[in-house]
Amino acid sequence: MDSIKQALVSLGEQPRVVSAMSYASALLETALQKTQTSEFQTACTVTAVGALLLAVALRRTPRSRKRGSRKQRGGQSCAQGAALKSRPKLSLKEQIDAVYAKYMDEYKTGLHQLLENYDPAREKDQYQRKYYNEMLLKLLIELDGVDLVDLPAEEKAALKEKRKQTIKEIQSELKKLDALKA
Fold first, then answer.
1. DSSP run (H or E) holding 116
2. For burial by CB atoms within 10 Å, which of 6, 10, 47, 140 has the most?
C-alpha cells in the first residue's frame, strides 16, 4: 500500500494527473479494503487503478470536429459537387467532340511548339513534355469512358469511327512526345 501511495505521489507532480491522483487514491484505498480476501483481487485492483491513471494522464483535449472528411463527402468540395450536379449530361457524340475540341483548343498548339523547340537540357521543356503526356493520356481515358454498347448499328459505327480517329491522332502525338525522351 505504501509503495502505491509513493507512486501516486510521484505521479502527482505531473500537472495532468494532480486532480486524478486524489480520486484514484481514494478509489484504491476503498478497493483494497473491500478486496483484502485475496492477493489476486488486490493485484487486479491495482492494475485497474494504474490503467485508470494512465488513461487520465494520456487523455488528450478534444479537438474541434469537422462536418465530415473529404472522403465522406465524395472527395469534392461543396462547390465542385454543385458544379458537377448542374452540368447537363452530354450525348455520346458530344462527349467525343468535347474531348477532340479540348485537344485542339488547349493542347495541340503548345504541343507542336514544344516538339519544334524541344531542348532536353532545359528543365522547363522536360516539365512540359511530361505535362502534355499526362494531359493526352487523360483525354484517352475520357474517350475510353464513352460507352457505345447499347446503340443502333449505324450510329454505333459512326461514333466508333469518330472515336477511333480521335484516339489515333492523340496516340500519334504521344509517340512524338515519347521520341523526345531518347
1. helix 109-117
2. 140
